Amino acid sequence: MDLHGKVAIVTGGKRGIGKAISKKLLKEGVKLAICSKNGEGLDLLEKELKMVTDNYPLCRIVDIRKGAAVSSFIQEVYRSFGKIDILINNAATIRTGLIEDMTEEDWELLIDTNLKGPFLTMKYVIPYMKENSSGSIVNICSGLSKTGYPNFSIHCASKFGLRGMSLAVKEELRKDNIRIMILNPSSVDTDIWNYIGGDYNRKKMVSSDEVAASVLFMLKNSTNCTIDELDIAPGKGIALR
Ligand SMILES: NC(=O)c1ccc[n+]([C@@H]2O[C@H](COP(=O)([O-])OP(=O)(O)OC[C@H]3O[C@@H](n4cnc5c(N)ncnc54)[C@H](OP(=O)(O)O)[C@@H]3O)[C@@H](O)[C@H]2O)c1
């Protein structure tokens, strides 16, 4: 699929994997809208992305846990660009620890951000995709969408949930020519590891650029031949020292 002229939304596009995806989409000539939770550095990102392309990206502060904020952001994207072709559900957060040490606040933060957020973006984007009888959604899940790992219980709950929701919505949307694709990265060197204790070797991790290249591969593949799910991980396995 030629991405030139397509309209894409990337949640959490300010940093890490989301930023790498955003840059690659802009280079393909995609009209881009990005949201992030806070405004710090958003102006710098706008300037940096402007150097990649003449397409000025729409960058907004949107907390994806809040339905009203998500709805008005998506309406603004539609008003600005006239359609929405691609949604990348990338934004997420993490807290780790033994289950008995996790708090209700940890539960609400992770489930609301990692699971309710993608529910809200899909809920508000899909009607516009149906209007066009086409669309591509990539839900960034995780290796921890399929495997349990100690200290990551609530994170696993949120990511297993996102993968399950994606599989169900994929079946709902087949008849509408809207693709739901799942990408499961493991051990990618980004700021998210600042929230995780433990002895991990970040130099051995996958780079954000490598993940972004996989997203582009999934999007550019023929719409007649969907890549339902892709797992990517460091060649030597999870990046323990
Ligand atoms: N890094 C890994 O090893 C790894 C492995 C498996 C899966 N993943 C998945 O890959 C995706 C990207 O991860 P990353 O490592 O690039 O994370 P990151 O560097 O921590 O960036 C997360 C992005 O999400 C945004 N965000 C968080 N909460 C939000 C909210 N409530 N509303 C809107 N935006 C919000 C952040 O916004 P601000 O910039 O404003 O804070 C930030 O831009 C996530 O889904 C993650 O679970 C990552």
Topology summary:
Blueprint: E1 7-11, H1 16-27, E2 31-36, H2 42-52, E3 58-61, H3 67-81, E4 86-89, H4 104-132, E5 135-140, H5 153-173, E6 178-185, H6 208-220, E7 229-232
Parallel strand pairs: 1-2, 1-4, 2-3, 4-5, 5-6, 6-7
The structure holds NADP nicotinamide-adenine-dinucleotide phosphate.
The site of NADP nicotinamide-adenine-dinucleotide phosphate has 29 residues, from helix 1 and strand 2.
Q: What does this protein structure show overall?
A:
The chain is of the alpha/beta class. The protein has one domain: Rossmann fold (3-Layer(aba) Sandwich). Helix content is 42%, strand content 15%. A seven-stranded parallel sheet has the order 3-2-1-4-5-6-7, with helices on both faces. Helix 3 packs parallel to helix 4. The protein is globular. The N and C termini lie far apart (40 Å). It binds NADP nicotinamide-adenine-dinucleotide phosphate. The site of NADP nicotinamide-adenine-dinucleotide phosphate has 29 residues, from helix 1 and strand 2.
What can be said about this structure in brief?
With 241 residues, the chain is α/β, with parallel strands linked by helices.
